[in-house]
Write a structure and sequence with these properties.
One of its GO terms (molecular function) is N-acetyltransferase activity. Keywords: Acyltransferase, Transferase. It holds the Pfam family Acetyltransf_1. The protein has one domain: Aminopeptidase (3-Layer(aba) Sandwich). It is globular and about 40 Å long. The protein is of the alpha+beta class. The protein has six helices and seven strands; from the N terminus they run E-H-H-E-E-E-H-E-H-E-H-H-E. Strands 1-2-3-4-5-7-6 form a seven-stranded mixed sheet.
């Protein structure tokens, strides 16, 4: 059976939820409330085999030129078969289409993201005015990306990576 890569639909959320659950148990992804997945459905790209969601990834725009790649996950049985690659390339294309110049991720999969042009970063890679504005409405991903240990610690201990488009 072939795998289709497409924008997520509301009926895909239970499958996305199941994928996230498999990765949060091992501490590889942060948990997200199901209601937030529905609220953010337009941010997600999914890989679907038949009617089963077998992979996902999301693009969350934070600023005029900055977005986060979130929640990239693929079923274990399909790892190494290019599904994650196709999802990430679709997310990167979406970032370009909406006009984002830089995308970042917080990941343990540094080799995977490195093959897609992401580079490990340290410190705060945004201008002070953007930093201040982002602080006003921070979430875990932004806080970890900006290294805001006093606001939200890097609870997973993952690596910050950035790609300039």
């Amino acid at each position: 059976m072939s795998i289709e890569i497409r924008a997520a639909r509301t009926q895909d959320i239970p499958g996305i939820r199941a994928l996230i659950d498999t990765y949060t148990l091992g501490g590889r992804l942060l948990n997200k409330e199901t209601v937030m997945l529905y609220e953010d459905v337009q941010e997600f790209t999914v890989a679907v085999e038949g009617s089963e969601v077998v992979g996902c990834g999301a693009l969350h725009v934070l600023w005029e030129d900055l977005a986060e790649v979130r929640t990239v996950a693929v079923l274990d049985r399909l790892k190494g078969q290019g599904v994650g690659h196709k999802i990430l390339e679709t997310v990167i294309d979406r970032a370009r289409a909406v006009g984002v110049a830089r995308i970042f991720c917080l990941t343990f999969e540094t080799e995977f993201f490195g093959r897609h042009g992401f580079q490990e970063i340290h410190g705060t890679p945004v201008d002070p005015d953007v930093y201040t504005e982002l602080l006003r409405s921070y979430d875990t991903g932004v806080a970890e990306f900006l290294d805001l240990e006093s606001v939200k610690p890097n609870t997973l201990g993952n690596t910050r990576m950035l790609k300039v488009l």
